[in-house]
Amino acid sequence: MAGLKFKETHNILKAVLFDMDGVLVDSTPQHVESWNHVLTDLNLPPLTNECYFSVIGRVNRDLLSCYSKYNHIKLSKSQIEILFTRKEETFRNLIMQKAELTPGVIEWLTFLKQNDIFCSVASSATMANIVLILHTLKIADYFASIISGKYFPASKPDPQIFLAAAASVGSPAEECLVIEDAPAGIQAAKSAKMLCCAIATSFPKASLARADIILESLAERSPDSFFE
């Protein structure tokens, strides 16, 4: 596969690795709503936006660790397992009703498929959530592979999830572009020696400064303006 030249850096790119939450789907409202639903059902304090955004892009265990410290409480193992299970069930019910593609995503996916660029999802979400969202949004067929951070010992900013995604489509790291929305994901991409395009879905542009390119959304520029 020849790949496409990325005009900004003149790199030849053969794969694009997409984060999911905040990149393919703006799911923050559903995540916060589902957490607060299960927390209040167990008579626990609600999740603050400050706590949620401090760990966005990481796994649920990191979020509950932050939540416990923030509220000065200690959750038992059984409480944690109950919270994980109920939160994911509630989230999946909500996302099936409310999932929407972020602006510009379908145009990018269509362009990349037409130009034989492999696409992979590399998300900290559970595999069940990734598969559900891709099928709900009707974009599963655009992706050659799906990688869930749940199966790695460390979450983003650890780069292993992106390195695994690159390997899954047979592309060297230097020939991959990562699309992210969170500082932890950008750091993971740069640690993996990959180019990174950040979109300001979840954080202001100033928080995404380590990315090679920063956009308000993928709709801000057409993909053919980046590639030749």
Short note summarizing the structure:
The protein is an alpha/beta fold and 228 residues long. It has helices at residues 28-41, 49-54, 60-71, 77-98, 105-114, 127-136, 160-168, 183-191, and strands at 4-5, 12-13, 15-18, 118-123, 145-148, 176-180, 195-199, 213-215.
Describe it.
With 228 residues, this protein is an alpha/beta fold. It folds into 2 domains: 4-26 and 101-225, HAD superfamily/HAD-like (Rossmann fold); 28-98, DNA polymerase, domain 1 (Orthogonal Bundle). Helix content is 40%, strand content 14%. The protein is built from 8 helices and 8 strands. The chain has a 6-stranded parallel β-sheet, sandwiched between helices. Helix 1 crosses helix 4 and helix 4 runs parallel beside helix 6 (127-136). The radius of gyration is 17 Å and the shape is elongated. The mean pLDDT is 93.
How many E-type strands? Answer: 8
Radius of gyration: 17 Å
> What is the CATH topology of the largest domain?
Rossmann fold
Q: Helical element count?
A: 8
What's the CATH H-level homologous superfamily of the largest domain?
HAD superfamily/HAD-like
Give the biggest beta sheet: 6 strands, parallel
Beta content comes to 5-15%
Shape: elongated
- CATH architecture descriptor of the largest domain: 3-Layer(aba) Sandwich
Helix/strand/pairing category: alpha/beta
What's the N-to-C terminus distance?
15 Å
What portion of residues is helical? 40-55%
Mean pLDDT: 93
Question: In the CATH hierarchy, what is the class of the largest domain?
Answer: Alpha Beta
In what order do the strands lie side by side in the largest sheet? Answer: 5-4-3-6-7-8
The number of distinct structural domains comes to 2
